[in-house]
Specification:
The protein has one domain: Pnp Oxidase, Chain A (Roll), CATH 2.30.110. The protein is built from four helices and nine strands, in the order E-H-E-E-E-E-H-E-E-H-H-E-E. Strand 2 and strand 3 form a beta hairpin. The radius of gyration is 18 Å and the shape is globular. It binds flavin-adenine dinucleotide. Flavin-adenine dinucleotide (FAD) binds next to strand 3, strand 5 and helix 2.
Length: 153
């Protein structure tokens, strides 16, 4: 079964676009891993996230902005010999994006990013009340490294 690594931005875009959620890996203040599922937006190679202004993840990211974000899709179980457990596997497409998160404070940029996220899930843009924009935390990852992998396809 073929394993193919790729840096092709078109393939990476297609894999990420097919994902409903991503998994953001962080390093907490005790140097322990902390991984959370997130909804996201992705446009022109940048990953966009949003959340409440407070919480464990915010404390972690303010202390250490380095993350590894994982995406995977097209999961498909296969086997070569039905009775043989170790002949089973899973086809998948996945991406890992590495780098440092940066927080967005500019009001108009926050609205633009909220619409990138909302477009992904609803196909449309929205209007936002100022308190909603002011009370949401928006952050982005411009990956320093991004790798795609297609396994079994
Ligand atoms: C598909 C999906 C999409 C999501 N999208 C978003 C998003 O876009 N933005 C967003 O802010 N949140 C999202 N969440 C929720 C997110 O994963 C966190 O639960 C949430 O952001 C709170 O994280 P925190 O570190 O601030 O937790 P806190 O409320 O500070 O956490 C307290 C404790 O709760 C535990 N905990 C936190 N989150 C989880 C969890 N998901 N599962 C089990 N235990 C947990 C941790 O052990 C932590 O120590 C999503 C969850 C799912 C499943």
């Amino acid at each position: 079964m073929a394993n193919r690594m790729t840096n092709d931005p078109k393939i990476i875009q297609k894999i990420i676009d097919a994902c409903e959620a991503c998994y953001v890996g962080m390093i907490d203040q005790e140097n322990k891993p902390y991984v959370l599922p997130f909804n996201f937006g992705f446009e022109e190679g940048i990953i966009y996230l949003h959340s409440a202004m407070t919480g464990k993840k915010i404390d972690i990211l303010k202390n250490n902005p380095n993350v590894c974000i994982s995406f995977s899709t097209d999961h498909q179980l296969f086997h070569r010999h039905e009775p043989v457990a170790c002949s089973y596997g899973m086809k998948y497409r996945s991406v890992l994006a590495y780098g440092a998160i940066s927080f967005i404070d500019d009001y108009d940029e926050k609205v633009r990013i909220l619409n990138i996220i909302m477009r992904k899930y609803t196909g449309r843009e929205f209007e936002y009340n100022p308190p909603a924009v002011n009370n949401v935390c928006i952050y982005k990852l411009a990956p320093s490294r991004i790798e795609g992998k297609e396994s079994g396809y």
